[in-house]
């Protein structure tokens, strides 16, 4: 038989404190998932625009070199071998390549993706810290709720101060999932 600890007050971890613990767990989990999805989305955009840039550059290079070759290998008069239609096609593909590279660099998809995944990892650590206390029966927890919640709030504040904010529109339409705010700690604490 495991006896309750006698060096802390058991009443310190009451229903209110357990509900606060569960709320913080849900919050850390929601933010972790949100920032993971944001990272995945930005990484996908980075790869998509990168693929467009690489493919269009390869096509332009191939078409340019192929159209400049004539039977006599006379490069000085080769520009006359290009029809207006070919010039328009080459210009269009070159423009697509340039625009796609500019979008990729201007919006910093890769940098944002890396920043978002770093933030997601910080929220995951916070979630694990909360779970490490939440998994223990309230009578056996060796930290006071006041000290624990103060430390958790400081961690939330530190992450919030250093993260890149996600737009509300993107959060609402792409990064949220209605099941993110389910915490297994709720069921666990019903048993206590």
Structure description:
This protein is mainly alpha-helical. Residues 1-5 have low confidence and may be disordered. Helix 1 packs antiparallel against helix 2 (84-106) and helix 1 (15-68) runs parallel beside helix 4 (145-162). The protein has helices at residues 15-68, 84-106, 109-134, 145-162, 168-175, 184-191. The chain has six helices and no strands. The radius of gyration is 28 Å and the shape is rod-shaped.
Topology, element by element:
Layout: H1 15-68, H2 84-106, H3 109-134, H4 145-162, H5 168-175, H6 184-191
Please state the overall shape, judged from the principal axes of the Cα atoms.
Answer: rod-shaped
The total beta strand count reads: 0
| Low-confidence blocks of residues | 1-5
Main beta-sheet annotation: none
Order of helices and strands: HHHHHH
Question: How large is the share of residues in beta strands?
Answer: under 5%
Termini gap: 16 Å
Mean pLDDT: 87
Count of DSSP-assigned helices: 6
**How much helix, percentage-wise, in residues?**
over 70%
What structural class is derived from the secondary structure elements?
Answer: mainly alpha
Radius of gyration: 28 Å
List keywords for this structure.
192 residues; mainly alpha
């Amino acid at each position: 038989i495991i006896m309750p600890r006698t060096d802390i007050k058991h009443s310190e971890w009451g229903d209110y404190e357990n509900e606060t613990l569960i709320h913080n767990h849900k919050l850390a989990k929601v933010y972790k998932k949100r920032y993971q999805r944001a990272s995945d989305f930005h990484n996908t955009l980075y790869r998509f625009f990168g693929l467009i840039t690489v493919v269009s550059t390869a096509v332009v290079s191939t078409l340019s070199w192929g159209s400049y070759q004539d039977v006599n290998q006379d490069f000085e008069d080769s520009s006359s071998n290009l029809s207006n239609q070919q010039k328009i096609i080459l210009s269009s593909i070159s423009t697509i390549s340039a625009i796609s590279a500019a979008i990729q660099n201007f919006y910093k998809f890769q940098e944002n993706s890396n920043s978002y995944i770093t933030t997601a990892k910080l929220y995951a650590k916070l979630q694990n810290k909360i779970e490490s206390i939440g998994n223990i029966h309230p009578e056996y927890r060796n930290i006071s709720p006041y000290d624990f919640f103060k430390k958790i709030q400081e961690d939330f504040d530190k992450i919030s101060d250093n993260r890149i904010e996600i737009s509300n529109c993107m959060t609402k339409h792409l990064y949220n999932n209605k099941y993110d705010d389910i915490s297994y700690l709720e069921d666990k604490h019903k048993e206590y």
